[in-house]
Task: structure prediction
Amino acid sequence: VPYRQNPFTDLLYPTKAFEYIVMGVPAILARTGAVVELFGDIPDMFFQPEDAGDLAACILALYEEPHRRRDLLEAERHAYRPYTWESQRERYIAQLDQVIARQRAIPNLEAH
Result:
């Protein structure tokens, strides 16, 4: 995912990377702040932003060495696992339950 490095992209989590990982396609990403924070320092995952040569070298290395592709995808899937629906479902439902409970605790002024 070839993002330029700027204050916006340093805070951006690229949805496209998650889509690639879910589809079983290794993602190669520009090394930006939020992405490194999210995925950690996974070997072969990152290239220097705005460096087409570095991106090309990453693509070529993964093309020429299938074991690196497999290792990269496995590491990405492991890093992504906490963000899957299966992992987030209970947290999301608990948040909804809290909102509903708060709403029920508020007196209905229109009923009086």
